[in-house]
């Protein structure tokens, strides 16, 4: 019974950890997972991967628009504006690269 109380106390202390620390931990883990996923992709899967990252960037824009739409001028509003700008550049660049890669597979017309 004493072990259960100790585990419950440990769980309670973990639940009261700083939200910034929790979010930073998730961000660091996401960076590592993203790094290993992207670098292990074969060149044949590059175009589908670009399409997925464009879709993810569109979700980021939706979240950033929600953050910008809040009342007042606080840090979330400015970070939302930065997120909208960077995700827009990412989406445009992704579609440009995807279009260029797909054009390499088109048959050339003979004159």
Automatic annotation (TrEMBL):
Major subcellular site: membrane
Descriptive protein name: proton-translocating NAD(P)(+) transhydrogenase
Gene Ontology cellular component terms for the protein in this record: plasma membrane
A Gene Ontology biological process term: NADPH regeneration
Membrane-crossing segments per the record: 27-45, 52-69, 75-102
Reactions that this protein is recorded to catalyse: NAD(+) + NADPH + H(+)(in) = NADH + NADP(+) + H(+)(out)
Keyword Transcription: no
Role according to the record: The transhydrogenation between NADH and NADP is coupled to respiration and ATP hydrolysis and functions as a proton pump across the membrane.
Top-rank taxon, per record: Bacteria
Domain NAD(P) transhydrogenase alpha subunit C-terminal, chain residue ranges per copy: 23-107
A molecular function GO annotation: proton-translocating NAD(P)+ transhydrogenase activity
Location of the protein in the cell: Cell inner membrane
Keywords, comma-separated and alphabetical: Cell inner membrane, Cell membrane, Membrane, NAD, NADP, Translocase, Transmembrane, Transmembrane helix
One Pfam family named in its UniProt record: PNTB_4TM
Species annotation: Iodidimonas gelatinilytica
Lineage: Bacteria, Pseudomonadati, Pseudomonadota, Alphaproteobacteria, Iodidimonadales
Enzyme class: translocase
Membrane topology: Multi-pass membrane protein
InterPro entries attached to this UniProt entry: NADP_transhyd_a_C
Protein's UniProt keywords contain Metal-binding: no
EC numbers for this chain: 7.1.1.1
């Amino acid at each position: 019974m004493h072990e259960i109380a100790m585990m419950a106390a440990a769980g309670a202390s973990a639940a009261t950890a700083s939200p910034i620390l929790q979010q930073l931990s998730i961000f660091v883990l996401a960076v590592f997972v993203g790094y290993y996923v992207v670098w292990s992709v074969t060149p044949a899967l590059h175009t589908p991967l670009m399409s997925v990252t464009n879709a993810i960037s569109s979700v980021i824009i939706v979240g950033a628009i929600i953050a910008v739409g809040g009342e007042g001028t606080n840090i979330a509003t400015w970070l939302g504006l930065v997120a909208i700008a960077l995700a827009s550049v990412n989406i445009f660049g992704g579609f440009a690269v995807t279009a260029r890669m797909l054009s390499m597979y088109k048959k050339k017309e003979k004159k």
